[in-house]
Amino acid sequence: MSFQKISTQRVLSFKYAFTGIISALKEEPNLKFHFLTAFLVLTAAIVLGISKWDFMIIIFLIGFVVSLELTNTAIEAVVDSFTNDAHPGAKLAKDVSAGAVLVAAVTSAILGTVIFLPYIQTFLNL
């Protein structure tokens, strides 16, 4: 396989990935919420001057939640493309994938609070 072919495939792979993210952003209100929340959290991290390690944890948590939301969106799209009828297996797949996002979001919110609280207290001189 030539380098040119590998490079072209790599570029197409990134193109498809970004197309998927943009499509999901247009269609999924929850993903829009997660991106808005990520923007606000990153802005607060910069304003509060959090440490490099705390910043890396925040970046990881954002990636964790957004990745699961994208996966949830993909699972819902696949399930919906195979059945319009109420099916217990389809419902279970969609509910479990949504539950995974919820667990990640709640975990991230708790860890974010633990990380940010000392910085907020210092910022407010408490």
UniProtKB/TrEMBL annotation:
Its cofactor is Mg(2+). ATP binds at Y16, E28, E76, K94, D95. A divalent metal cation binds at E28, E76. The keyword Cell membrane applies. Belongs to the bacterial diacylglycerol kinase family. It comes from Candidatus Daviesbacteria bacterium GW2011_GWC2_40_12. It is found in: Cell membrane. GO terms for molecular function: ATP binding; kinase activity; metal ion binding. Mn(2+), Zn(2+), Cd(2+) and Co(2+) support activity to lesser extents. Substrate binds at E69. GO terms for biological process: phospholipid biosynthetic process. One of its GO terms (cellular component) is plasma membrane. Keywords: ATP-binding, Cell membrane, Kinase, Lipid biosynthesis, Lipid metabolism, Magnesium, Membrane, Metal-binding, Nucleotide-binding, Phospholipid biosynthesis, Phospholipid metabolism, Transferase, Transmembrane, Transmembrane helix. Pfam families: DAGK_prokar. It is a multi-pass membrane protein. The chain crosses the membrane at residues 33-51, 57-79, 100-120. This is Undecaprenol kinase.
